[in-house]
Specification:
Blueprint: H1 2-7, H2 28-35, E1 45-47, H3 51-62, E2 72-74, H4 92-102, H5 120-130, H6 139-153, H7 160-173
Parallel strand pairs: 1-2
Helix pairs in contact: 4-6
């Protein structure tokens, strides 16, 4: 998202914007405390809107971020449905196409069962189970690399609505 926004001159960061993977909401608190210093604001945190993300948002706002509650964001703020995840910030059709190209060994393509307007990760997991496709640990990382590769190679396929959404996310996350 960041690279595409910068490439389209929709984002001109004053400082480097880093997205360290925290491998689950539980590690967000640890990372935030490591990345912050005593003389700077706490870094903005973007969490999934699922149960774990919502719980971590509350924990952060009641703990480390008590004086900076406005620095904790949940993906549900940006999407028209609940239980959203970071993956849902990617345009639905683009994500569906990437999934079907990422995993071609199934009888039924993901595009045949995917439903817009609902969190995509549970849909992927349900589809994979129905196709006897074993999702390994780290499958989301593998998929994200494929989505990133395809997005950078085909940034013209990212529609204006997605660009506007991503701009809003980055406006909120910027200090």
């Amino acid at each position: 998202m960041k690279t595409i926004l910068i490439g389209k001159s929709e984002l001109v960061p004053k400082r480097e914007i880093v997205f360290p993977p925290c491998h689950g909401a539980g590690n967000a608190k640890i990372l935030a405390s490591i990345l912050s210093s005593t003389d700077e604001k706490l870094p903005a945190v973007l969490l999934d809107g699922d149960g774990a993300g919502q719980k971590m948002a509350r924990d952060l706002q009641n703990g480390l971020y008590q004086a900076a509650k406005d620095r904790v964001f949940v993906t549900d703020k940006y999407l028209p449905f609940k239980e959203s995840e970071i993956e849902d910030l990617i345009p639905f059709d683009f994500m569906v196409d990437a999934i079907d190209r990422w995993e071609r060994k199934t009888e039924i393509p993901f595009a045949d069962v995917a439903k817009p307007g609902a969190p995509i990760v549970p849909q992927i997991e349900k589809w994979a189970a129905s196709q006897s496709l074993q999702l390994t640990d780290g499958w989301k990382v593998s998929l994200s690399r494929e989505v990133k590769r395809r997005a950078l190679a085909n940034s013209s396929k990212i529609d204006a609505a997605a660009i506007a959404l991503w701009k809003k996310v980055f406006e909120d996350l910027s200090p």
